[in-house]
Amino acid sequence: MSCNFEVKIFRFNVKMDYESYYSTHEICLDENDNVLDLLNAFKQKEYFFGYNNNADISIKINSITTKQNEILKKIQDKFGNELTIEPLMIKRSYHDLLINTDDFKNKFDFLASFANFEDKKFYDELEFLYYSSATLKFKEDYIGDGILITAYEMIQKYPSFKNEILKKLANSNIWYHTKIQQNLFSNSDEFDTKINYLKFEILKNFPKINHITNNLNKQLKDYL
Amino acid sequence: MNIVFNAKICDIEYSSFYLYKKLLEKQNMKHELVEIQTPPHDICILNENIIFDIKNKLSMYENNIIYALDYHSYEILCLVKKSFDLNFDIKQVFELLNLNITQSFNGFNASIYAKEDKKIQNLIQKTKLKCLKFDKINLPNGFGHLNIDKNFALQIISDIKEEAFDNSSDFIIVDDIRDFYMLENLSFEIEKSLKRELKIPTLTLAEFLLLAIKSKLDFKNHLIIPSFI
After folding, report:
1. What are the Cα distances from residue A4, in Å, to A1, A76, A99?
2. Mind listing the pLDDT tens digit of every residue in chain A (224 residues)?
3. Rounded to an integer, what distance in angstroms lies between the CA atom of residue A99 and that of residue B61?
4. Strand pairing partners for A22?
5. Residue B184 gets which letter from DSSP?
């Protein structure tokens, strides 16, 4: 079976364009092909199109973070036949779907003193998560869901660091985390559950560490 | 007998509870309404005692289907079910409805800000209301951040309301009491934060469905009264 799509892709080349724009093409592929095949087909039509030719990375389709290895049948089931494809974060695009990720990389400093090479490698794979958070749009200095998930995994791995990591998180802007589940193609609640666990543990172990934990604990007491 | 559950948020007076009661009665549908006061979902997830308390109140409904009154009630049911591995099925109350739509909304545009927007669009398609594409549909409502940083919460909800307004929606339909509170009760604060007038009403799904069957509503809980009624 084939899938027909009207594909609208974000375009911007920092070296040539004053403003961004969208290119639209009709593309027909087999339903078992994946998003990367779709981007490759688009490249055939637009030679200078910039994207990452790697099935494991993610882009945004109709505002939802989607891996490039997702098969087109599933894409059609979820979004229908009109697709708007954009980079993970439009304002960091330097060439179409390619983005500058320095902000994501720099935020690892937060955990660097507890982490080893493997933890850093784990964090690097969470780039898609960092750019999926709605919080980032309103608060650029947000620590990022990538750090929070890495912190969660490190607490499981190194229980002796648990209190130090939680204390550091308590005084960070973890409290600005917003639910991420609906922004992911998988619609998985796995990441929100892990981040909520961190908040839960902070409130339990450090209820009066700052005005936010104080305030939240006061609210909890009022309800109980 | 259908069990309809409402997790009424302690701080919010308004709920669609009595509106759904009206809708179910119009269909002569037998139902038991269960309403409990809970903190908002964002607070419930932070304390095991609160979830345990809700679980105790719901345990007598095990082995049933429980119909959530709105998305907040749905999230609370899912949280309790997952935390304690309870045995009940969760559905949305609007799935019970099969209404005889008599009011046409032909010529009206609306933005649906709801997690189950596709199901809702199917439910209301007989009204001929045009549901506009809403890019901000996946943004959170900011309710959980009101007590952490109100400006941040207002920034988020303002962004949502502004898109609906700029798309020329006649109104916004919501299916979560928290969305209604943010969009309607904070209307003036949103306008102040945007320095812009956004006179766009918000209707709960239950209110819209009642209008669709030509029931009268008083809109006493609304700050922006729908002028087209």
Report:
1. 10, 9, 28
2. 888 999 999 999 999 999 999 999 999 999 999 999 999 999 999 999 999 999 999 999 999 999 999 999 999 999 999 999 999 999 999 999 999 999 999 999 999 999 999 999 999 999 999 999 999 999 999 999 999 999 999 999 999 999 999 999 999 999 999 999 999 999 999 999 999 999 999 999 999 999 999 988 888 887 77
3. 51
4. A10
5. I
Alpha-carbon gap, residue A77 to A101, rounded angstroms: 31
Q: At A69, phi and psi to the nearest 5? A: -95, 5
E-only strand ranges, A64-198: 64-67, 82-86, 93-95, 98-99
Interchain pair A134, B50: CB under 8 A:
no
Query: Angle at the Cα of B38 (from A196 to B7), degrees rounded to 5?
Result: 100
Which of B141, B148, B175 would best serve as a mutation to test chain A binding (most A beta carbons within 10 A)?
Answer: B148
Query: Using CB atoms, which residue from B43, B135, B145 is nearest to A223?
Result: B43
Token pair, residue B23, equals 């809708």
pLDDT in tens, B26-63: 888 888 888 888 888 888 888 888 888 888 888 888 88
CA B7/CA B37 separation, integer angstroms? 6
How far is it, in rounded angstroms, from Cα A25 to Cα A23?
Answer: 7
Nearest neighbour of B50 by CB, restricted to A63, A216, A224: A224
Q: Please tell me what DSSP assigns to residue B212.
A: H
ipTM of the complex, rounded to two decimals: 0.90
User: What chain B residue is nearest to A139 in terms of C-alpha separation?
Assistant: B152
Q: Which of B10, B135, B140 sits opposite A179 (nearest CB)?
A: B140
Contacts of B46 in chain A (CB under 8 A): 196, 199-200, 203, 216, 220
Q: Which of B43, B148, B159 lies closest to A175 in CB terms?
A: B148
Nearest CA in chain B to A214: B148
* Pairing of β B130-131 and β B109-113: parallel
User: Is the model's pTM score more than 0.80?
Assistant: yes
Read off the DSSP letter of residue B132. Answer: P
B-proximal residues of A, 55-84, CB under 8 Å? 63-64
Asked if the Cβ–Cβ distance from B50 to A199 is below 8 Å, we say: no
Cβ–Cβ contact A215 with B under 8 A:
yes
